[in-house]
Specification:
By secondary structure, the chain is of the alpha/beta class. A hairpin with a 2-residue loop joins β1 and β2. The longest helix has 18 residues. It starts with a strand and ends with a helix. The model has no long low-confidence stretch (mean pLDDT 97).
Length: 244
């Protein structure tokens, strides 16, 4: 359990287990914290599932309601989170790792792959977020709920929040990257499908089709499908873990 300071941000992370590292990004959108991994919204908890064989790194995203904090500006966006993720890897002297992300974690993964693909051996995207169709007017309810909790961020004015929201969600598709980039990714990826408005099945399906080196699991959240998905994820990670 530790924090690092980088570019004005304080980022909290934890490490569990030993072995080849897996950097993980919890679901819950801009409220992505370590605690979410222990809730029913995360059918696969990387701490309990992978720490017996891997060095699992979990973290609170900046200003998500956990222990990570950073100033909020109108220029913030996916690159701000990616800088935090790379700061954690640099601090831990991790040159190469796997990535596991659910929900917003899929966009975090793609942003990191766009920035430093050489550091990623394999990536698992569980129900990635994305948008089918045009951006709806206004801001999403979950984003506004998060914004109301920013009582200690006087710099987060409505204008700043509007800019941040557009920086993150106006681009469309997987938000942090476009279809052309996804088609260029050479990193092995495993996509677990979403099935609701925030994580549309067509987004997951198209992502898996666009990725040149991808596997796809259409059902995974409950029962025997979840058991089989856990097995598949572990097989995928083992297959793409560099040999010592």
């Amino acid at each position: 359990m530790a924090t690092i300071e980088k570019n004005g941000a304080t980022i909290y992370y934890e490490e569990h287990g030993k072995g080849f590292p897996i950097l993980t990004f919890a679901p819950a959108g801009v409220k992505s914290t370590i605690a979410v991994w222990s809730t029913p919204s995360a059918p696969i908890n990387p701490i309990t599932e992978f720490a017996s064989s891997y060095r699992v790194i979990v973290m609170d995203q900046r200003n998500a309601g956990g222990k990570s904090r950073a100033p909020i500006t109108a220029k913030d966006g996916w690159h701000s989170f990616t800088a935090d993720h790379l700061a954690v890897l640099d601090h831990l002297k991790i040159e190469r790792c796997h990535l596991y992300g659910q929900c917003i974690g899929g966009s975090f993964i793609m942003s990191l792959l766009k920035t430093q693909p050489q550091r990623v051996a394999g990536a698992v995207l569980a129900q990635p977020i994305g948008r089918v169709g045009p951006l709806k007017p206004g801001r999403a309810a979950r984003f506004d709920e998060w914004a109301r909790g920013l009582t200690d961020h006087p710099e987060a004015t409505e204008a700043v929040l509007d800019a941040l929201y557009r920086n993150m969600y106006a681009p469309g598709f997987l938000y942090s990257v476009d279809r052309a980039f996804v088609s260029s990714v050479r990193t092995p990826c495993l996509v677990l499908a979403g099935n609701d408005e925030a994580h549309p099945y067509p987004i997951s399906e198209e992502t898996a089709k666009l990725l040149p080196n991808a596997e796809f699991i259409p059902e995974w959240k409950t029962g025997t499908a979840l058991d089989e998905a856990k097995k598949r994820v572990k097989e995928f990670l083992a297959k793409h873990t560099p040999k010592a």
